[in-house]
């Protein structure tokens, strides 16, 4: 489990919102910090938020980053400190194999992981845009919920796989493959293929 997953498992969106000074009203609605909001239009669900005014959405890390004015990674670290989150023992130790020096080339398994993550992120962005609820009473589509919860995670994984040091990339790829994440995501991508027809041509995607 990485820091993003640990934080998301430990702190709900409403908890973080209250902790960092947001006033949370009935039905977990709050004034949106992403736009100039006079009536509460931000819906705080347990694991993600969504604004009916400006369509901002994200998870507990994204909200904390906005409220603290820091990057996602620093927001995750702040949550760890402020909520006293300790390692749960299941965090895999990244073993650095210095005896196997690499020259920065991507291995087949790293490329497979990167493609799966990038394809999944592309799908999540489509889901987030296409299946967004229209009003607070609407039942939430599970694809939209999954997108709000996992976009930040997928971006962090892609970053690690793309620009990590060779030994870090390899350890990350090994972990993702060992825990079955990549196989699961490849299945999601196949199932969600038809949704890509909703992809906005002007959106920037990582291919
Ligand atoms: Zn808003």
Structure description:
With about 210 residues, this protein is mostly helical. It folds into two domains: about 5-80, Zinc finger, CHC2-typedomain (DNA Primase, Chain A, Alpha-Beta Complex); about 110-200, no CATH class. Helices cover about 50% and strands about 5% of the residues. The protein has a four-stranded antiparallel sheet. Helix 3 crosses helix 4 (about 70-80), helix 5 (about 110-130) packs antiparallel against helix 6 and helix 6 runs antiparallel to helix 7 (about 165-180). Mean pLDDT is about 85; it is low at about 90-105. It binds zinc ion.
Structural class by secondary-structure content: mainly alpha
The average pLDDT value, as a whole number, equals 85
Number of helices: 8
Number of domains: 2
The neighbouring-strand order within the major sheet is 1-2-3-4
Biggest sheet architecture: 4 strands, antiparallel
User: What is the end-to-end distance?
Assistant: 25 Å
* Assembly classification: single chain
The small-molecule ligands in this entry are:
zinc ion
Share of helix, binned: 40-55%
DSSP strand count: 4
- Tell me the overall shape: globular
Low-confidence stretches: 89-103
SSE ordering: HHEEEEHHHHHH
Specify Rg, calculated over alpha carbons.
18 Å
State which percent range the strand residues make up: under 5%
């Amino acid at each position: 489990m990485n820091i993003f997953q640990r934080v998301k498992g430990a702190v709900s969106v409403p908890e973080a919102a209250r902790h960092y000074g947001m006033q949370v009203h009935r039905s977990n609605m709050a004034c949106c910090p992403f736009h100039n909001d006079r009536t509460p239009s931000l819906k705080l669900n347990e694991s993600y938020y969504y604004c009916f005014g400006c369509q901002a959405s994200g998870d507990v890390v994204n909200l904390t980053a906005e409220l603290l004015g820091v990057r996602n990674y620093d927001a995750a670290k702040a949550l760890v400190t402020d909520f006293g989150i300790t390692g749960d023992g299941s965090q895999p130790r990244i073993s650095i194999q210095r005896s196997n020096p690499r020259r920065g080339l991507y291995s087949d398994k790293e490329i497979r992981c990167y493609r799966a993550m990038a394809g999944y992120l592309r799908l999540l962005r489509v889901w987030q845009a296409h299946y967004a609820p229209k009003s607070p009473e609407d039942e939430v589509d599970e694809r939209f919920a999954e997108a709000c919860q996992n976009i930040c995670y997928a971006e962090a994984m892609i970053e690690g796989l793309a620009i990590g040091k060779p030994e870090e990339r390899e350890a990350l790829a090994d972990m993702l493959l060992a825990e079955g994440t990549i196989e699961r995501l490849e299945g999601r991508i196949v199932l969600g293929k038809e949704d890509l027809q909703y992809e906005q041509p002007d959106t920037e995607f990582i291919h």
